[in-house]
C-alpha cells in the first residue's frame, strides 16, 4: 500500500476535530477521516493541546422541573449546553471544510 502524505493543516484540523468532539476515540475519528489510527495519534502528539471536549453531563435527578432548579444551577446547565453546542459547531465546520477540500482535490484530479 502506498504511503499517503497529508498536509500539516489537514493534521491540525483532524486534531481539532478529535479534541472538540466529546467521547471521541482515535479509532472513530480516524475511520471518519480515512486515516490510520496511528497517523491520527501522531498528529495528536504533535499538534494537540492536551484538552478534549467534556462529555455531556446528565442530571442525576432526571425528573427535576425547570421551576425547581435555582438560578445558579440553571446558568451552569445552560453554560454547559452552550459549550457542547459550540464544540459540535466546531466539529461540523471542520468536517465541512475537510469535505470541501476533498471535493476540490478530487474534482481537479479527474482527466476527462
TrEMBL record:
Top-level lineage group: Bacteria
Keyword match Coiled coil: yes
Name this protein carries in UniProt: Transposase
Single biological process term from Gene Ontology: DNA transposition
Bias-annotated ranges (Polar residues): 49-63
Keywords: Coiled coil
Location of region: Disordered: 49-68
Coiled-coil annotated residue ranges, if any: 68-102
MF terms in GO: DNA binding; transposase activity
Amino acid at each position: 500500500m502506498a504511503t499517503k502524505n497529508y498536509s500539516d493543516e489537514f493534521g491540525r484540523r483532524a486534531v481539532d476535530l478529535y479534541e472538540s468532539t466529546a467521547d471521541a476515540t482515535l479509532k472513530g475519528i480516524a475511520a471518519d477521516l480515512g486515516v490510520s489510527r496511528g497517523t491520527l495519534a501522531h498528529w495528536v502528539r504533535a499538534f494537540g493541546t492536551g484538552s478534549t471536549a467534556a462529555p455531556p453531563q446528565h442530571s442525576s435527578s432526571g425528573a427535576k422541573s425547570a421551576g425547581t432548579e435555582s438560578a445558579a444551577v440553571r446558568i451552569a446547565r445552560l453554560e454547559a449546553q452552550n459549550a457542547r453546542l459550540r464544540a459540535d459547531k466546531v466539529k461540523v465546520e471542520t468536517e465541512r471544510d475537510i469535505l470541501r477540500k476533498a471535493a476540490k482535490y478530487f474534482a481537479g484530479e479527474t482527466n476527462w
